[in-house]
Design goal:
Layout: E1 3-9, H1 13-24, E2 30-35, H2 42-50, E3 57-62, H3 69-81, E4 87-90, H4 102-108, E5 114-118, E6 125-127, H5 131-148, E7 160-163, H6 164-168, H7 179-192, E8 197-201, E9 203-205, H8 216-232, E10 250-251
Parallel strand pairs: 1-2, 1-4, 2-3, 5-8, 6-9
Antiparallel strand pairs: 3-10, 4-7, 5-7
Helix pairs in contact: 1-2, 5-8, 7-8
Length: 260
């Protein structure tokens, strides 16, 4: 296996200093940090850590606009597809996703095109998140799942593992949403082309440092995008399995095909 994980960042300097060494402890894993010109120096902090990574940590510095999770993630996906990575993962930089659980997700891609780290399947947990935020998140997921007829419990999870060929088959040019709507749209398109999707339980931990990037406009966009997807009828034939057990000015890191 040749895994690569994409970590979009904006003002996560202290978190990446903790997260990236843990990711680099996973044998053979390569890491791509996609930084949206963070004013707190996140990109520089990642560059410093990359110096001792034997080339396994790369940093993409996105300059100018448009910014945001969707644009940054798409830049990262396109870069990852230009490497020889056969499994491509996505995860947040704020330590809400546990690096120790990434190994489980990598193993699960042996049986699924897309593996979602889910908060809402048996065994999934949410730690230290205020009750009102938990209820809002669960309610939003239930609405998205119902509106879009997606047989997935955690439609907005940003913790994902993809088989390369599945990710390469997606119509990335059609993905235009931001925030959690981007994640829902990406999942919807995967189901639309017949990707086999599974969910594995994770422990989601509320961030300790920094501020959440989720804004009220992201929830509004998610509702609008969900309605748009439902009306499009693009996923009339889908199959999924549920398991409990850019482009603006961008400075890219040097291409690295990794060990073969």
């Amino acid at each position: 296996m040749r895994p690569l994980v994409i970590v979009p960042t904006y003002n996560e300097r202290e978190n990446v200093r903790r997260l990236l060494p843990q990711l680099l402890d996973i044998p053979e894993l390569r890491v791509l940090v996609v930084d949206d010109a963070s004013p707190d120096g996140t990109g520089f902090a990642a560059e410093v850590l990359s110096e001792d990574s034997d080339g396994r940590l790369k940093v993409m510095h996105r300059i100018g606009r448009p910014r945001g999770l969707g644009h940054a993630s798409l830049d990262g996906i396109r870069y990852a597809l230009d490497t020889n990575a056969d499994v491509i993962c996505q995860m947040d930089a704020d330590l809400s996703h546990q690096p120790s659980e990434l190994r489980v997700m990598l193993n699960a891609t042996a049986h699924s095109d897309l593996v979602i780290g889910s908060r809402y399947v048996p065994g999934g947990r949410i730690v230290n998140r205020p009750r009102r935020h938990q209820l809002l998140s669960a309610g939003v997921n239930a609405c998205v799942r119902t509106i879009c007829s997606m047989p997935v419990h955690d439609c907005t999870s940003g913790f994902r593992g993809w088989r390369r060929d599945a990710l390469a088959s997606l119509p990335l040019h059609r993905i235009d949403a931001e925030g959690p709507a981007f994640l829902a749209q990406l999942l919807y398109e995967a189901l639309a082309i017949g990707c086999a999707v599974s969910e594995v339980p994770i422990t989601f931990v509320e961030r300790e440092r920094g501020r959440s990037k989720l804004l009220p406009r992201h929830i509004a966009e998610l509702a609008l995008v969900s309605m748009k997807l439902a009306l499009s009828g693009a996923a009339s034939t889908t199959r999924a399995t549920t398991a409990a057990a850019p482009i603006q000015a961008t400075r890219l890191p040097a291409a690295d095909s990794g060990p073969r």
